[in-house]
Amino acid sequence: MSEWAQNLPPHSEEAESAVLAAMFRERDSIHEVVQLIKEEDFYLPENGIMFRVMVEMNEAAEPIDLITVTERLRKMNLLEKAGGLKRVAQVAGAIGSVYNCAHYAKIIREKSVLRKLIHATGHISDRSFEDADPVEEILDEAEKLVLDISQDRARGGLVPVGEIVDANLERLEKLSQQTGDLTGTPSGFVDLDHITSGWQKSDFIIIAARPAMGKTALCLNMASNAAMGDKGVPVAIFSLEMSKEQLVQRLISATAQVDQSYLRTGSLPEEDWAPLVAAIGPLAEAPIYIDDTPAISIRELRAKARRLQAEHPDLGLIIIDYLQLMGGSGKSENRQQEVSEISRSLKALARELDVPVIALSQLSRSVEATQDKRPALSHLRESGSLEQDADLVLFIYREEYYFPEETERQGIADIIIAKHRNGATGSVALSFQKEFTKFGNLAQYAEPPRDLS
């Protein structure tokens, strides 16, 4: 056993006693410390038991002092586990300032984090020495353990509105010094950006459609528009349906405007080689990162997204193609509940990383039972809680797909903004070139909004 492993884990008995003493003396101290620590953050189990009991008594509006707490512990058969009457009395009379209880609680939490890290690294070290599992599996667990500790440490509390107002004023001052309309990651489609002002940080966006409407093509176009634009915004794409090679083939087709059937067969006409070569250079340099792990879980996706953001702090967009193919936790009773769980997790990911997250979603056949085949929010309600979780809901509709003979809108796709939590709804028309899997502008606005992100 190494020398460090023989030492006691990090802890502060003084801070633990001081927090509990403050809770005995002042009820407001309880309200303050419960936002910072939990029972399991205490190193000494008896201190954790006293903490839990006093919190429960506070929630029940019961008086808290040495006599009432001791009596409650006795009734719950916990007095001996809490160290006995003498120990409870010692804690109640411990030295410490009520006004510093939050500081004491933070010391307890930091020591708890260090102990959890020691436990996690010890567990991973044991698995590594055993050499019985695939390296990828051990790495995934290591990342998950550290991620869970980090997220628990980052749990927040109530914030005075004044601090939030100040942050908003700073943001407004920054924006007012610039001209233009875009405050988020650009989609590259003028009319769409005019309504959304770009994809906003921490927004969870659903783009839904029936098969063959062009969901993947639209998001690949958005990815290349953002990554190959003036600012070169880093974009992450998690593809659960197509391989990374197929996605890149589509990106090349759309960028070079070369028929993708030629790319599949390799039989390119002579005149297509020049635009192909010209397109590949900038595309190869674009900060687009693709992961094609099938049935990826939200845990694995979150870990990979966090790692990419650590490497590229200016990560501006995450795309998942598509949501229903993600693996669930296996704890849900049915697939609809599982999709709802995934949806809530993706929304939490957008907030955690402060990055817009676009999830593609497959609509059911019920859309095609309507007369005009146009999707609406009611069709999304069949897919768990997607509608309520999303900040924006967009549908793709191509009339020519359903009514090829009757329509006058050949080569036109409607992007229907059915829900926009912080802005207007409406419909935007884009051109669609199927042979290039490329959407384009049919812009009403002569100048694209300037990117302020």
UniProtKB/TrEMBL annotation:
Domain of life: Bacteria
Catalytic activity: ATP + H2O = ADP + phosphate + H(+)
Keyword Transmembrane helix: no
Top-level EC class as recorded in UniProt: isomerase
Keywords: ATP-binding, DNA replication, DNA-binding, Helicase, Hydrolase, Isomerase, Nucleotide-binding, Primosome
EC numbers for this chain: 5.6.2.3
GO cellular component, one term: cytosol
GO BP term, example: DNA replication, synthesis of primer
Molecular function as annotated in GO: 5'-3' DNA helicase activity; ATP binding; ATP hydrolysis activity; DNA binding; identical protein binding
Domain spans labelled SF4 helicase: 178-446
Free-text function comment from the UniProt entry: The main replicative DNA helicase, it participates in initiation and elongation during chromosome replication. Travels ahead of the DNA replisome, separating dsDNA into templates for DNA synthesis. A processive ATP-dependent 5'-3' DNA helicase it has DNA-dependent ATPase activity.
Family matches, as PANTHER family: REPLICATIVE DNA HELICASE, REPLICATIVE DNA HELICASE DNAB
Family classification: Belongs to the helicase family. DnaB subfamily.
NCBIfam families (alphabetical): DnaB, PRK05748.1
Protein name: Replicative DNA helicase
Organism of this sequence: Peptococcus niger
Lineage: Bacteria, Bacillati, Bacillota, Clostridia, Eubacteriales
